[in-house]
Amino acid sequence: SQQGEEDPQALSIQEGENATMNCSYKTSINNLQWYRQNSGRGLVHLILIRSNEREKHSGRLRVTLDTSKKSSSLLITASRAADTASYFCATDADAGGTSYGKLTFGQGTILTVHP
Amino acid sequence: GAGVSQTPSNKVTEKGKYVELRCDPISGHTALYWYRQSLGQGPEFLIYFQGTGAADDSGLPNDRFFAVRPEGSVSTLKIQRTERGDSAVYLCASSLRWTSGVDEQFFGPGTRLTVL
Asked: Which of B40, B91, B105 sits opposite A45 (nearest CB)?
């Protein structure tokens, strides 16, 4: 079963605009990860944020985590047409201080960036 | 270096047939995961190997599904008596799994299984 929900389900923006995607989850986590998927095939890891972190940056990506609200957001700044893809959050449950390793994915956000 | 590879990339079979899907992880990765992704959904966990043993097979939907990793490297997911509902993309991932660490999973391109 899916861990939580992603919002919005689909997002359409113009090149240069920022894109924000949200993810909510239900159980206690060790870490949360964001992945990108093109054409319904392999996933590419974007960023990992641990449960004791609140914000993380990687290039044009910014991820925030609010464990009290059980939610995370992914911000892509200055979007490009090549960012068009599906984006998934995935949680790695807490196993007494370590992680289980198996990921529980949300349903994803389909991002379309128009040139 | 080479990433995770999966074969075949596409598999079409008839209802009731047996299929095997293969995953070749990144060399040296001790952990291997299988996920299944249906159209419009996120991947769902099936099974996780640490070395040769299945550390967690709680995601396998029923006893028609079985997976092995006999030498701690290549893994095969086996589906008996396939049903139309088994149609999905089967994804494999591997990682360097530390006993108390957190690490990134590297995914293969997937095998698209279609059961007619």
From this structure: B105
